[in-house]
Amino acid sequence: MPLKPEHRFRNKVRKKLNRTIDVWSIHDSFTGGVPDHWYSGWESDLWIEYKYFPKLPRKPIDLTSGKHPKLTRLQQHWLNRKLAQGRDVWVVVGFPEGAVILTDGEAWTSAFDASRLMVPLDVLVTSIEHHCGVNNEGLEG
């Protein structure tokens, strides 16, 4: 079965990450709202919920409404609760051209212009590595 575009996008990110970053791809059928991935490095960890658009929209994106990939109420609740608890959570909106990194509840519950906020995929990867902390000595585990 061919991979869905969001899954292919997440795999691109994962393959580019430094190998000292631990990645847990999450599919939880019992607890709604849990983000797609958990990343852990030498300094910190990070939860990321991914959304993917196969085409860059001309209008601002609102991840809380509409028919496009959106954050469910359970996802919004989980992300906002963990953010309030001091956890590091992001919503990453992927496109063929790059990604938008949203790092707080106001950002992922407000409309945004993706063309103005988009960064290349390599910047997303570097941002995850920088946030989590990479062991440049090549030691894993």
Number of DSSP E strands: 5
Spatial order of strands in the largest sheet: 1-2-3-4-5
CATH class: Alpha Beta
Tally of discrete structural domains:
1
H/E element order: HEEEHEEHHH
Binned, the helix content reads 25-40%
**Low-pLDDT stretches:** none
The name CATH uses for the topology is Trna Endonuclease, Chain: A, domain 1
* Total of helices: 5
Distance between the termini: 33 Å
At a glance:
The protein is 31% helix and 20% strand.
Write a structural description.
It is a single chain. With 141 residues, the chain is of the alpha+beta class. The protein has a single domain (5-96, 104-132), classed as Trna Endonuclease, Chain: A, domain 1, CATH 3.40.1350. Helix content is 31%, strand content 20%. It is built from five helices and five strands, in the order αβββαββααα. The protein has a five-stranded mixed sheet with strand order 1-2-3-4-5, with helices on both faces. A hairpin with a 2-residue loop joins strand 4 and strand 5. Helix 1 (5-16) packs across helix 5 (121-132).
